[in-house]
Design brief:
InterPro entries: NAD(P)-bd_dom, NAD(P)-bd_dom_sf, UDP_G4E. One of its GO terms (molecular function) is UDP-glucose 4-epimerase activity. By secondary structure, the protein is α/β, with parallel strands linked by helices. It folds into two domains: about 1-65, no CATH class; about 75-410, NAD(P)-binding Rossmann-like Domain (Rossmann fold, 3-Layer(aba) Sandwich), CATH 3.40.50.720. The protein has eleven helices and 18 strands. The strands form six sheets. The protein has a seven-stranded parallel beta sheet, with helices on both faces. Helix 9 (about 350-360) packs across helix 11.
Length: about 425
């Protein structure tokens, strides 16, 4: 009934392309069948045939992705899916064979005049796959409920949060309201729809000033130096209580270190028109001439060159970490488990600047100012637990982080801002 055109291994995923013969359709375009059943081993896999295809063309069901058990991967709701880490993770999810529904309120991302996510439109370009996108705020619980009612969601990856450390200190209630109540609403809607699998975007900020380096998951949490980090810590504690009270929950919290870099295509990256608190966008804004000089806060830390040391991790490595976590939840019931995602290597501010200059052949003028209140001298991860239990490891070098971010910056000097985008920047 069909010819198997390609068969390739993609990780643990089998990818099939099938072509359906014309004879399945009568001349007036009415279906003789609307389902295709493929037998894989002992399993029958049913695939819906879209009804609106032109009858002259053989219908291509390209890249139907079926995992080893012969089941198609599930549907994932990604909150904050239009944001920096969210959009890159959506690429990895689609490439791994998941269907994606995304929501975002555009606090940290850019919308087009049609209220679509510019980043996710580009994700569709990169992957050749559709993302179901909703403009929605997690504080609007009814709207969130409607999304769950409209799709058969299997699991949730929760990125949506306010994230600017400075703003969190000056407007703490906004941060508590958005991050904490947003999470509570999401958990309640999930519970009412019988969905208990979640990957939560936590942060290394939950560790505060670390007592020992590198930081393992056993390091104490809670001695947090800023409100943003406290919201992440409180949510982790809340999840512990929720899981204790209802063992149906199956949640992984990923504590990630400093995300940098961009997708290799240069089509998506961290938008410079939104508030960013990371060093890399500042460096590249100076390199491209949008800012005159880079400010380094503090060169008197107890580190090799006196500047702060961080564990920079490529955003595509973080993205693959979320897919690895989801695969783990699909297979196993963990209750609640925390994992660090980092490279395990600390890089100082000056080292990052020098690497960026060397790799991209640019100059970054900088000035030194006094250290900022609440800044931590040195942080880097021990990420061996994620490697042992999730099979995940950061594979991109700091050179690649610099190169990929610069490609994104030079291809998109004003970020996602396009003629079609509205004025809310």
């Amino acid at each position: 009934l069909f010819s198997l055109q390609t068969f390739t291994m993609v990780g643990s995923v089998d990818r099939f392309e099938c072509e359906i013969e014309n004879k399945w359709f009568s001349k007036n375009g009415a279906h003789q069948m609307d389902k295709l059943t493929i037998q894989i081993g002992a399993k029958d896999v049913s695939i819906d045939i879209p009804t609106d295809e032109a009858v002259e063309q053989p219908l291509k069901l390209s890249s139907i992705i079926i995992d080893m058990t012969g089941e198609q991967k599930g549907t994932v709701l990604v909150t904050g899916g239009a944001g920096y880490i969210g959009s890159h993770t959506v690429v990895s999810l689609l490439e791994a064979g998941y269907s994606v529904v995304a929501l975002d309120n555009f606090t940290n991302s850019v919308n087009s005049a049609k209220n679509e996510s510019v980043a996710l439109k580009r994700v569709e370009e990169i992957t050749g796959k559709k993302v179901h996108f909703y403009r929605c705020d997690l504080l609007d619980k009814d709207a969130v409920g409607r999304i769950f009612a409209a799709h058969r969601i299997d699991s949730v990856i929760h990125f949506a949060a306010l994230k600017a450390v400075g703003e969190s200190m000056s407007n703490p209630l906004l941060y508590y309201k958005n991050n904490m109540i947003g999470m509570i609403n999401l958990l309640e809607v999930m519970d009412s729809h019988g969905i208990y699998r979640m990957v939560f975007s936590s942060s290394c900020t939950v560790y505060g000033e670390p007592e020992r380096l590198p930081i393992t998951e056993e390091n104490p949490t809670g001695n947090v130096t800023n409100v943003y980090g406290r919201t992440k810590y409180f949510i982790e504690e809340m999840l512990k209580d929720a899981v204790r009270a209802d063992p149906k929950w199956n949640i992984i919290a990923l504590r990630y270190f400093n995300p940098v870099g961009a997708h290799k295509s240069g089509l998506i990256g961290e938008d410079p028109t939104k508030q960013f608190t990371n060093l890399m966008p500042y460096i590249s804004q100076v390199a491209i001439g949008k800012k005159d000089v880079l400010t380094i806060f503090g060169n008197d830390y107890d580190t090799p060159d006196g500047t702060g040391v961080r564990d920079y991790v490529h955003v595509m490595d973080l993205a693959s970490g979320h897919v690895a976590a989801l695969n783990k939840l699909d297979k196993e019931h963990l209750g609640l488990k925390m994992y660090n995602l980092g490279t395990g290597k600390g890089i100082s501010v000056l080292e990052l600047i020098q690497t960026f200059e060397r790799v991209n052949k640019v100059k970054i003028p900088y000035v030194i100012q006094a250290r900022r209140a609440g800044d931590i001298s040195s942080m880097f991860a021990n990420a061996t637990l994620a490697e042992q239990e999730l099979g995940w490891k950061a594979v991109h070098s700091v050179e690649e982080m610099c190169e990929d971010f610069w490609r994104w910056q030079t291809m998109n000097p004003s970020g996602y801002k396009t003629e079609q985008a509205n004025g809310h920047h």
